[in-house]
Each structure stands twice: as structure tokens, then as C-alpha cells.
Design brief:
Strands 1, 2, 3, 4, 5, 6, 7, 8, 9, 10, 11 and 12 form a twelve-stranded mixed sheet that branches. By secondary structure, the protein is α+β, with helices and mostly antiparallel strands. About 45% of the residues lie in helices and about 20% in strands. This is BioF2-like acetyltransferase domain-containing protein.
Length: about 400
């Protein structure tokens, strides 16, 4: 199917686990329509019933959307920063400089080869959702279904002349999927760590604070106090008007630039509007205001989604001048969401990737996020394999220092 709209919402969502909000029909259709992504969905049917599926993104331009294509996943600025940090560990400044120069030369050669040999690319991922999986209906023989869908992906790429296939931002430790991908010749590499906050039996913000180390608990209480002293407050907006949504899209630009993502304010306005109109995604919009602010004049915002008992703080942005040193980010994204979660019975907050230190210090635990890549051409595949092996090793050295489980 060459569009999400070609697949029935109930048909697709029957395959999606309740907490995988970024694989849901509402999410995929929203990002497809708002950004013009070229999505391809593969369905496995048994008789008239759909029993498995996987969604992909056709990427024709390696510069169009970083982190959703092979070049960005293996050679992007964020990845290169990780590799340089890994090379600097346990090395003298001179050794680090020599290793960095060697890395830069290898990256120039292999990135150029990948740009020439990998496109158009079929990327199995959720745009803006950073999630990838093969979905199966409960009760379906998962290993066989995955094999059928991977064969369908291979056949599609041969027919369409697509030279590379990848699964990006795959998490969950699915042994059946990992065996199938390896069996089909995909190369595995560690991409990053994603962070979840497990609230366990916490029934209040104070009980959550009790799970932190004493020194960190003192710091958090000070941040909460300074937020109030700065004259800032959090407000939930039940029915935002277009002016407020436009202001949120404006504020989101800083976050997009931080991670090297393209800035398209109009598309973000359309996406926020679509998400807030999709009740199955459990959307909620929170804003930070100064006491004197009213209407669309807000200093920060956070758009959250909630599904399957998991809270997903997703889109955010702040006016740094307006919020000043009031710790608006930590109060809105962490402490207010913890209060909301425990009050509503949510037991887990999914914070995704990035900002690792801030998340670890507030009790979040990391889990590995993987990538898998395969070239149709045997020679192109052989050429990229040594680089992927080194990339994976350096990522494990760096990220494994944050959580030893990653090394296993």
C-alpha cells in the first residue's frame, strides 16, 4: 500500500500494541499528510484478515530529513559526535587527534559511497516517531510472519530498483525480529539509548522524589521552588485556538534546530492540529506562562501523547529570554508530568533519546535502540560492512559506559 490512507484504521491498529503510539494509524497518517512523506505499508493477509504489517518510508534525497535515512543514521553530525567521544576515551590528546583524523577520512569516503549507492532508500521507521517494528496480530506465528514480510520488502525493492533497505530506531529486544533480519543479511548497529521513567508504585510527586538520591532530591526541590519564584506556571489548554498552535510551532523551531532537523513552521502547525484532534493518541497540550501572560502569549509548551498506560512527552519549545533561569524545561517536562502521571494512574513515562544526563539524573533508565541496514548490491554491502562493525563497536564503548547492559 503506497499510503496510510489506503489501509483501514481499525485494520492497521489491530496489529499495534497499545503503547506503541508512534506506529499507530493516526500518527502515521498525520505525519504523512502534514510533511508529504512517501510511506509504503506492507500487509500480510490470511484469507480476508490482516495478520501482520510493517511500514516503511521511501527516502529519495539523503539531505531531506536527517536521522530517517542511512546517511543520517551512520554519518550524521549527532553520530559523529558520539564516535569522536568514544575515540577520546582512554587516549592522550595526540592519540585522540590522530584517531579523529583517521575517522574523518573514513567517514568522507564511506558517506560519499553511501550517498551514491543507497538511494532511493526504503527505511522501515515511523517518521518523527523514531520507532520501528514488524507488527503481528496476537496469536499469529510471529517468526513466520516476519519472514514473509521481509521477503515482500525484498521483492518490492527489486521491482522498484531500490538499492538499500534499513530498519532504523528499532527497540524492544525482539529476538524473532533480530534473527530474521540477520538471516536476511541486515547488518546490525547500536544507534542510541532511549530513556523511560518507571514510576512503580509512586502515588505522588513526593514519593517520586523519594526514589532519587538525597543530593538530587535537594536539587529538584530547589528547581521547583525557583520555577514558582520566577513567576511561572503550567497550564493545560483543553481547546487551543489556531493562534496558540501557531505560537507553539514557532517555539518548536529551537528544538528542531538543536537536533539538525528541517524547520517547517507550517507543517508543524498542521501536525499539532492533527494530533490534538486524534483522541486515540491521548493528546494533551501544556504551556508555561508568566503570571501576566494571557491568550497565545506563552513562554513554553509541551505536547504529550498517552496510550496504553504510557505517557510520551513529544514536542516542546521555550522562549529562553522569557523563562530565564526558572528551570521551565525540567518543571514542565519532568516534574509536572510526574504529577500528572501518578494522578492518572500512568506507570511509565517514555522520554525517548537525547538529553541523556538530564534524564538519568531524574531516575530514567536507558535501553538500547538499534539500526539494521542491507544493500541489494553484494559489492556495496561488502564495502559498508567494516564501517558498520566499527561504528557499532564505538557506539557500544561510549553508550555502554552509561549502561553496561548495552554491551551484551
Amino acid at each position: 500500500m503506497r499510503s496510510t490512507s489506503a489501509v483501514g484504521r481499525e485494520e492497521w491498529d489491530a496489529l499495534v500494541p497499545p503503547d506503541r503510539v508512534y506506529l499507530s494509524h493516526d500518527w502515521l497518517r498525520a505525519v504523512e499528510e502534514c510533511f508529504g512523506f512517501e510511506l509504503v505499508l506492507f500487509l500480510l493477509r490470511d484469507g480476508g484478515r490482516t495478520v501482520a504489517g510493517v511500514q516503511g518510508l521511501l527516502v529519495r534525497d539523503p539531505d531531506a530529513f536527517p536521522y530517517h535515512d542511512p546517511t543520517g543514521a551512520l554519518f550524521g553530525d549527532y553520530e559523529m559526535d558520539h564516535l569522536r567521544q568514544a575515540l577520546e576515551r582512554d587516549r592522550s590528546p595526540q592519540e585522540s587527534a590522530e584517531a579523529g583524523a583517521l575517522l574523518a577520512a573514513v567517514v568522507r569516503a564511506e558517506a560519499g559511497h553511501t550517498r551514491a549507492a543507497a538511494y532511493p532508500a526504503l527505511v522501515m521507521t515511523s517518521p518523527y516517531g523514531y520507532a520501528s517494528d514488524v507488527l503481528t496480530l496476537p496469536g499469529t506465528a510471529r517468526e513466520g510472519a516476519i519472514g514473509e514480510l521481509l521477503a515482500a520488502v525484498d521483492a518490492f525493492c527489486r521491482a522498484e530498483g531500490i538499492p538499500s533497505q534499513s530498519f532504523l530506531w528499532e527497540s524492544g529486544g525482539d529476538a524473532d525480529l533480530h534473527r530474521a533480519l540477520a538471516g536476511h543479511g541486515y547488518l546490525e548497529f547500536l544507534s542510541d539509548l532511549e530513556y523511560d521513567l518507571d514510576l512503580g508504585a509512586c502515588a505522588s510527586l513526593e514519593e517520586y522524589l523519594g526514589t532519587l538520591e538525597r543530593k538530587r532530591r535537594t536539587v529538584v526541590r530547589a528547581e521547583i521552588r525557583k520555577f514558582s519564584e520566577a513567576g511561572l506556571r503550567v497550564e493545560r489548554i483543553a481547546d487551543p485556538d489556531p493562534e496558540l498552535i501557531a505560537r507553539c510551532a514557532e517555539l518548536s523551531e529551537g528544538q528542531q534546530k538543536k537536533y539538525g532537523l528541517p524547520v517547517d513552521r507550517g507543517a508543524m502547525e498542521r501536525l499539532f492540529t492533527a494530533l490534538l484532534a486524534a483522541p486515540a493518541l491521548g493528546p494533551a497540550l501544556y504551556v508555561v506562562r508568566r503570571e501576566e501572560e494571557r491568550g497565545p502569549d506563552v513562554s513554553g509548551f509541551l505536547l504529550c501523547l498517552e496510550a496504553g498506560g504510557v505517557l510520551h512527552p513529544k514536542f516542546l519549545g521555550f522562549d529562553a529570554t522569557a523563562v530565564g533561569a526558572g528551570y521551565a524545561y525540567f518543571n514542565l517536562v519532568f516534574y509536572h508530568q510526574v504529577e500528572r502521571a501518578v494522578a492518572g494512574g500512568v506507570r511509565r513515562i517514555s522520554y525517548g533519546m537525547g538529553s541523556a544526563d538530564a534524564k538519568r539524573l531524574r531516575g530514567c533508565r536507558p535501553a538500547p535502540v538499534r539500526g539494521w541496514i542491507r544493500f541489494s548490491s553484494p559489492s556495496a554491502h561488502r564495502r559498508i560492512e567494516p564501517y558498520v562493525t566499527v561504528f557499532d563497536c564505538l557506539k557500544k564503548q561510549l553508550l555502554g559506559n552509561q549502561d553496561g547492559r548495552v554491551l551484551r
